[in-house]
Structures are given as C-alpha cells and as structure tokens.
Amino acid sequence: MKRGKSYPVVCVPALLLIALVLALLTSGCYSASSARSSSKTSVAQSTSQEHTYGPGLPPLQPSALRGPANFLLRTPLDFSSVTGSTTSGNGETTRLNATVIKDGINDEFKHLLFIIDSNERVNVYTPGASDPTTAQITQNTDGSTALTYTQTTSSEAGSFTLLFNGVFVKDHISAIYEQQYSPLLISSAAASDVTVAFTTDVRWITTSEIPAAPTSGTSRITSKGGIALSWGAGQRSVAYAVYRLIPTRDQQFQWLATVRGLSYTDNSPEAIHNAHATSGITYAIFSLGPTGVENPSNIVIPV
Fold first, then answer.
1. What is the CATH number of domain 47-61+210-302?
2. Contact, 275 vs 191, CB < 8 A?
3. Looking at residue 147, what is its pLDDT?
4. Which sequence spans correspond to the domains of the chain?
5. Could you give the CA distance from residue 106 to residue 251 in angstroms, rounded to a whole number?
6. Which of 85, 106, 168, 244 has its CA 20 to 30 A from that of 20?
7. Which residues does 48 contact at the CB level (< 8 Å), separation at least 6?
8. What is the pTM (predicted TM-score) of this model?
9. CA–CA separation, 19 vs 25, rounded Å?
10. Per DSSP, what are the bridge partners of residue 299?
11. Averaged over 113-132, what is the pLDDT?
C-alpha cells in the first residue's frame, strides 16, 4: 500500500521448518503497541452523486488468520546500511534521501502480517493482496534459518520487484531488502532502486489482536467537490486506516488518515481534481485491532 513514498511497497517472507516453528512458538512473548490516534472525520451533508461498492477483495476467513502463531516484525528497524536512487528516462540518476527511505521501509513493515499455519508454513499477508505469499526456507548448519522471498507485481504505474533475504535466529532477524521499480514506457516516472540492511525482533501477536475486515463501502461527491467515504464495521476493530491511489500519479496506495469512526471525507485539492477524471481515484480501507494490528483484507472504493 502506498504511504507517501516514491518507491515500491515492501513485502517480507517466511515459511519455517517444523523445528524452527516449534522453537519460535515456545520462545515467543506477546507485546502490544498503540494504534495511531485520530479523531473521527465528519461527512459533508450535501451530495449530488452516490455509488455503492462491495469489497475489493473477499474478507479473509477467520481460520486463515489463526495459525499456531502470528507475528509482525518490530519497527523501527535497526538499519546498518541504506542506499537508493532514481533514474530518469534520459539516464540521469538522483540519490534518494536516507531518512526518507528509512521512513518508507519502516512504514511498510508495520503492515505485514505473518501467520504460521497448521502445516508449519509462514504465510505473509500484505495489505490489499488477495492471497498470502510463502517464503523459501533453508536451515543453516549453525542453527539459524534463512528466509528468501521475491515478488514481482505490475500496476498502471509500472512493475515492482521486491527481494528479501533474511536470517532468523530464534526471534531475531537480520535481513537485506531491495525494492526495484520500472515505470511503463508511456510513464514519465523515474525508475528506482532501494536497498537496505537491517536487524529487528519478532513481535508475537494473539489471534484476538487481529480484527475482522470492514464491510462494503460507499462514496459520494460532497457539495465542496470532495469525496465522502463510509463503510461497515469490522468485528474487534477500534480504528480504520484510509489509503488513496491516484493512478496517474501514485505507484501504490498512499496512507491518508487513521479514523475511529466509519467515515472519512477527502476534501483535498487532489481529490477534487481527480473525482471526475477519466482515470478516477480509488480508496482502500483497512481495519485496525486494539493493539494496532491491521487486517490485510480491505474494502476498495473506486470513484
């Protein structure tokens, strides 16, 4: 999902051998962190257009999120190296700011959910993906476990390749992660390549921390020309994260706000300008649980 950065979204791996899974299960300890706080945004009353849409993806069944163990990677990550650059169509290369890269990668990893299933596999749920991804695992002779993962996706903005190589030692991981973005030939966007190395710990989470996905949503144009959104509550949800994608500009969904109610109004100039554009504008809504854990299934509301 997009969170205001100019390079692709991150996804992480996992699928552990039985021995490692059992070790993780017995050594893990659960902790909690607070969700972003945000006040409820009111919806404008006057409207001339209204549309109703069902879920962009079928909500994940509760059983899919109830493995022997569930975990996130703790953020902020401890970076040991950060490099990144963009390359324009004429070959001009520009180095990306290291702080911007760190902020973007940290934000991506906040939203990845790892479920160790009953077959001792680790499925990685990325916000907005219809199916989880499973990493390749290699048990090393020193007792550590290597996790590797590659994902290639395409969008209206171009193609994204995500490469992850990590080593687990109990509940600690060291990893090298790379994001590569190649724009379509008709796009004016610049290609990018970001590589980071980091270490972090596993944060174990209980099933009760994972909320149900929100239900079908609606959109309408307000009297100010903005876009008013509303959706149905997800069980155990205490807040909702709102994202937006403008196809002509964004490589991926951009985070807009976290709200505690069931509505959000986007009166930004970008929303007003693109509400009637041919390419349109799309929003995605995700449920947040009591400790900030995000359900990876979402409601997509196109306008």
1. 2.60.40.10
2. no
3. 82
4. 18-32+63-207, 47-61+210-302
5. 18
6. 106
7. 221
8. 0.66
9. 10
10. 285
11. 72
| Token code pair at residue 262 | 């069931």
Helix (H) or strand (E) holding 269: helix 269-274
How confident is the prediction for the chain on average, in pLDDT? 75
Nearest Cα neighbor of 113 from 175, 60, 152, 55 is: 60
Q: Is residue 190 helix, strand or coil?
A: coil
How many Cβ atoms from other residues are within 10 Å of residue 70's Cβ? 25
Evaluate whether 205 touches 30 at the Cβ level (below 8 Å): yes
In which residue are the tokens 């069980």 written? 235
- In angstroms, rounded to a whole number, what is the distance separating the alpha carbons of residues 217 and 300? 8
> Quick one: 194 exposed, middle or buried, by C-beta within 10 A (0-12, 13-18, 19+)?
buried
Measured distance CA(53)–CA(301) in Å, rounded: 6
Q: Shortest CA distance to 4 belongs to which of 243, 300, 270?
A: 243
In the block, tokens 């985070």 appear at 255
Residues 214-231: pLDDT tens digits?
988 999 999 989 999 999
**Which tokens go with 103?**
């902020």
- CA within 13 Å, CB half, 246: 17
Q: What is the pLDDT of residue 33?
A: 31
Q: What is the pLDDT of residue 68?
A: 59
Q: CA 55 to CA 197: how far, in whole Å?
A: 36
The CA distance from 244 to 35, in Å, is 19
Compute the half-sphere exposure of residue 18: CA atoms within 13 Å on the CB side of its CA: 2
- Is the pLDDT at 184 greater than 80? The verdict is no
Q: What's residue 127's pLDDT?
A: 65
Question: What's the one-letter identity of residue 196?
Answer: V
